Amino acid sequence: QVQLEQSGGGLVQAGDSLRLSCVISGDTFNPVSMGWFRRAPAKDREFLGRIRWYDGDTDYINSIKGRFTISRDMAKKTVFLQMNGLKPEDTAVYYCAALRVETGAWSYWGQGTQVIVSS
């Protein structure tokens, strides 16, 4: 069984940094890609970016480029979301997700972690 366990998050001030972590459990599972999403209050879930597992290639939506960075530690089967220069509009619940090659879908999700950025 594949599980994604998130950690990090919390309450910070504008301009601060946070790092979110997402640990993949399931010995035989290696994702094609790992993604980060967020859901802000009263808004739809938003895709932020993803990292391709085998070579670390990344891409991001324009609104977070230069502020957020996705990385991974393959040995620890962990993916990270480093968030710098946080803004109040970054307040949301953040989720990691794993893309399965068999389905081409984000099939596994973390439990979500709250990030609140005060002005």
Sum up the structure in keywords.
seven-stranded mixed sheet; mainly beta; 119 residues; 0% helix; 11 strands
Short description:
The protein has 119 residues and is an all-beta fold. It has strands at 3-7, 10-13, 18-25, 33-39, 45-52, 58-60, 68-73, 78-83, 92-100, 105-109, 113-118.
Overview of the molecule:
By secondary structure, the protein is mainly beta. It is built from no helices and eleven strands. The strands form two sheets. Strands 2, 4, 5, 6, 9, 10 and 11 form a seven-stranded mixed sheet that branches. Strands 1-3-8-7 form a four-stranded antiparallel sheet, with no helix packed on it. The chain starts with a strand and ends with a strand.
Q: Any chance you could write out the topology, listing elements then pairs?
A:
Elements: E1 3-7, E2 10-13, E3 18-25, E4 33-39, E5 45-52, E6 58-60, E7 68-73, E8 78-83, E9 92-100, E10 105-109, E11 113-118
Parallel strand pairs: 2-11
Antiparallel strand pairs: 1-3, 3-8, 4-5, 4-9, 5-6, 7-8, 9-10, 9-11
Q: DSSP strand (E) fraction?
A: over 45%
Which outline best applies? globular
The run of helices and strands is: EEEEEEEEEEE
By oligomeric state, this entry counts as: single chain
Tally the helices: what do you get?
0
The total beta strand count reads 11
Q: Main beta sheet, described?
A: 7 strands, mixed
- pLDDT < 50 runs, ≥5 residues: none
DSSP helix fraction: under 10%
First and last CA, distance: 41 Å
The gyration radius over C-alpha positions equals 14 Å
Average pLDDT reading: 94
Structural class based on helices, strands and sheet pairing: mainly beta
